[in-house]
Design a protein that fits this description.
Neurotransmitter-gated ion-channel ligand-binding domain-containing protein; extracellular ligand-gated monoatomic ion channel activity; 68 residues; mainly beta
């Protein structure tokens, strides 16, 4: 399954030139198409959307690693 990941810069928190690092505030978006979460609305009384608890939906395992 293809998972697209995007990182959005929110703000620059700190720049430390002597120690050569920066601190950023970021948000991470994950997008994928799950074939198990689609249906034909005609077969379900015209229902086009539902709310599903997050713990019942597959979510990819993502690990953030900081490297230089």
């Amino acid at each position: 399954m293809l998972v697209k990941i995007g990182i959005n810069l929110i703000s620059l928190l700190d720049v430390n030139e002597p120690q050569e690092y920066i601190k950023l505030a970021v948000s991470c978006d994950q997008r994928w198409h799950d074939d198990f979460l689609i249906w034909d609305p005609e077969k379900f009384n015209g229902t086009t959307s539902i709310t599903v608890p997050a713990d019942m939906v597959w979510i990819p395992d993502v690990t953030v690693v900081s490297t230089v």
